[in-house]
Structures are given as C-alpha cells and as structure tokens.
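Exercise (ungraded).
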Amino acid sequence: MTETLVEFEALTVRYGARIALDAASGRFVRGATGLLGPNGAGKTTLLKALLGFLPPSAGRMEAFGLSPTVAPLEVRRRIGYMPEVDAYLPDLTAVQTVAFAGELSGLPQRESMRRSHEVLQFVGLGEERYRKVETYSTGMKQKVKLATALVHDPEIVLLDEPTNGLDPAGREEMLSLIRDIVTLRGLSVVLCSHLLRDVEKVCESILVISGGAIRTQGRVEELKKLDRDWYVVRVKGETDNFVAEVRQRGAEALPGPDAWRVALPMGAPVTWIFDVAAASATQIRHLRKAEDTLEDIFLRATNHEA
Amino acid sequence: MSSSQIYEQHYRRLDASIPLRAQRWIPIAREGLKALFSLRAYLALISIAWLPVFVRLVQVYFTTRFPEARRVVPVDDKLFFDFLAQQLPWMLLMSAYAGAGLIANDMRTGGLLLYLSRPLTLVDYIFGKVMILFVSLSMVTMVPGLVLFFGARSLAPDVLGAASHLLLVPKIVAMALALVLPTTALVLVMSALARSARFAGLGFFFVFVGSTVAHAIAWRATRSAYAGLISIQATMRRVGEAIFGVKPTRMTADLPPEYAFAVLALLFLGCLFVLKTRVRAVEIVK
C-alpha cells in the first residue's frame, strides 16, 4: 500500500464567519498528488492548515504522524512550500535568498550556501542567480520559489499554482522540473492547481476539492477505470427529449462541448442508447465510447456540489 | 519534440535530517545587520553619531589638565546622562532609517511567507527583527556610552577611578535600555502597520515628535507634571534622570519616575502585543 504522508479527517477551517474547508477528509500519499479545484475551492487553505498557519476549528490533520497545530516546527521542517504569491526578500540575490531560506530551515551557514547554488543550478537559473530577485521575470521568480522550497531537502513539497503567470515554454519547463523532482529525486509533491493539464502531466494521484470539501480522490488510473461506461452521443431531433428520457431511466447525461456524454446504467448494453432514442423520437447521429479523462473526473466531482 | 530545456542536475538528497535549531532568530538578526552594515548611509549615520563621544572625551581630558574647569563642566553622573539624552535624535534617525522597512518590506514582497513557512515561530521572527534594531540603536547609545565611561575613566582616574564609579556602567546600560527598547518596539509596530517603509518612518516620527508637542501643549494648559506621561521623550528623560540621580527639568520635576517607567513598559509591551497580532502568515479577512 502507498505510504500516507498527510492525512486529514473532517477538517473544518474558518476565516471568521466564512467556512473555507468544510469537513474535508483525504490524504496525500508518497509520489505526486494533484490537488485540483476551481478558484476559491479551498486548495490554498488546505496547504496553509498543513503548515500550521490556520488552526482548524474542527477535525483532525496529521503530517508524518504529527499534528501541525501541536508540532508546527517539526512539520514545517519536513515540508517545502512554494506559495502562489511572490515571496522574496528585498535587496537579496537569488543565491542569498535561497541560502537564507536554508539557514532558516536549520542548515548550517556554509552548507546552506552550497545547497543554494545546487538547487538554483537544478531549477535552471545558472548565472542569473547572482541577480537581485526583484529584478527577475515572473518565470524566474517562480524558479526561485521552487528552489527555496527545495533547499532543505524536504520530504514533501507543496506547490501552490506553480505555473501561474508562465508562458507555454516556461510552463512546460516548470512541469518538467516537478516531474524530475518526483521521479529522479524521490521527493513527494502536492501540486495544487486549477489547471487539469498540469496535474495530468505530473501526478499519479488526485484529490478534487470544491466548496471546501474533497469530492473525489485516488489514483488517476483507478478513478478512470472505476467509472461506468460513458459514450459521446449526438442526436438529431429534440435533444432535450433525449436527455430527459436518459435521466428518467435513471442514467446520467452531461453536456459536452459539442455533444452529450451519457453513462449507461450498470450492466446495460450499448443498444440501450438506441432504445432511449426511439422512445424520445430522436435519431443517433454520432456514437462513440468516451475516453475518460481527468476532465471528466473533475467535472463529475465538481458537479456533485451543484 | 519536447520543448523542455536541458538544465544541470546538481540537486542531491541530504544524508541526514536537519535538527531543529535552538536560536532560530540568529540568522534573521545576522542577515538584517549584514544588510544594514553594507549601506554607506547607515555607516555615515553611525560615524556622525559617535562624534559626541570624542567631544566628551576631549572635555574630560581638558578637565584633567585644568581641574578648575570641573566647576563649569563637572565629570560626574550628569555628564553621562547628558550624553545619552543628546544621543536621542541620532537614535530616532537610526530607528526610522534602519527599522521602518524591517517588517513592511517583508509584507510588501511576501517575504513574511518565506520566513513563516520555515521551522520558525512568530516569536522567533519578531525577536530576530527586534535584535536588528536593538543592536543598531545600541550602537549609538549603549556602546558609545560605555566607551565614553571607560575612556573617561582612563583619562581621569582621579575622578572616575574609584570602584564605586563602576556603578555608572549599569546606569548607562539601564538608561540606554529605557531609550532603545520602547523605540525599537514602536518603530517595528509602525513597520508592521504601514506596509511601506516610507509611511512607517513618517508614522514613527509623527508619533514620537507628536507626543512631545502634545506634552508641551498640555503642560502649558495645565502646568501639571503628569502631562509628561503623554510624551515618549519626556518619560524616557524622566527615567534617565532617576537612574543617574540628576535634577529633573521644570516640566517633569514632580513626575514620579515610577510612572514614567510604567508608561515606557506599557508602550513596549503594548507594541509587542500589536506585533504578535498584526504579523501573521495568513491574512484573515472577516
């Protein structure tokens, strides 16, 4: 069984009167986990609760068997955090910033400077590392944030929207770095994003969060397999009648960009769709088995909320 | 073809886990001081603030050559009290220059997250910042005060050479602390509240100088020594006068020094409380 690094159960976090996490339960396992959700779903709040910044008003959270509210320093020592927003120190070069971050994490001064050079080379900043961070482009600042998250060699790295503000090439490079951290360096990563493509490229497991609650979670491959048979259907005639008939028979129909996605009832043959079409006085013009994507899983999970 | 770039693979895993550091504020204080001492303007300020030490030492030397001059410029406790009181403007300048951006800049650039996502407590962070300013301000109060004492003692052993005069050391330290600690806390609070170093500096001056002006107005209106309690400068001075046993000024002559000390202690603790509630990794918008 995959080793669990972080576990939370019925976790509730409030910002004043507003509930940001509503009895959320889930776990981050070793490897790359995607934390997917629309903006304002509670992704960043979950990460901040894990860092011990936000005390939960109810529920339980454990990282490496420790509670972030009881032992925040021990938990943070083993976590690398790359925040979504800018996080640098004025007047310091990248190499000084990262070395300082290493020292704050407990590395001796000399070792910290050595690690700083190494991780900045690793993220691809090369000679640029001697420039002040405030003069950097968005992409370079993202790399410095990644380097500061890695400098103390954490067990798990929390990446909050790491590709924000990057152009396609920069995005590709950042994702490639993250993949490298996981596959070649053996670190675990939580990639927090609202971009499905980013998560799909890097992560083996996902948690879908929406409205402050975890809607679905598990290994991407298993989530795809476990789902029922879905078909992409386009009909001629009154589409609304067709959809109504599908739903009346207890099956599921979801709108797609140019066609409907229909899930057959358990054990039903594909001819079931033709029966529905006949009953709703419509004709099937296009029918193919849908390939389940992360988008399908995400849409279904977030539709749960609606 | 993949568009990902080739980068050097220098990242390596650490062999041992990093232990939690005991004095976690030290790197914060050290980096802050290193940054300050790399600024020429800061070094120039310190150099100018040290000029009065040499002037006073010349004065002491002069009195050793011409003992009758001691009737005009005596070498006693008042010399050290006057010296520290005269350092106040320098201390204010240094506070605004060195302290206004200490927290404001971290808030502006998100640096606060860089600190607080590490194995550090809020107290470590605040203490580190306090130490930067404490050392900076001590460089123009406590340290020159002590240098002046030991310099004067070696120049005029007949006047300051007795063992009993060593009591001046704790007196200098105590008055310097009365000047430095509340100022440090106040400027850090301004820095945490303003989010801009410039506004923090202006706010600090406004509060410090404003309280002195308010004291002058209140004293003229009431002629009460207790009006001095609203002035940070007057309370500092009154505490200093009590420490060195110096005759108080007319405006604060009847002000009990315990009250002045209580005001400074409350200011210091109140500022620490504001810092602890204001500085946080997550903005809570209610």
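Further reading is listed at the end of the chapter. For now, observe: Chain A has two domains: 4-223, 230-289. Chain A touches chain B through 57 residues (CB under 8 Å).
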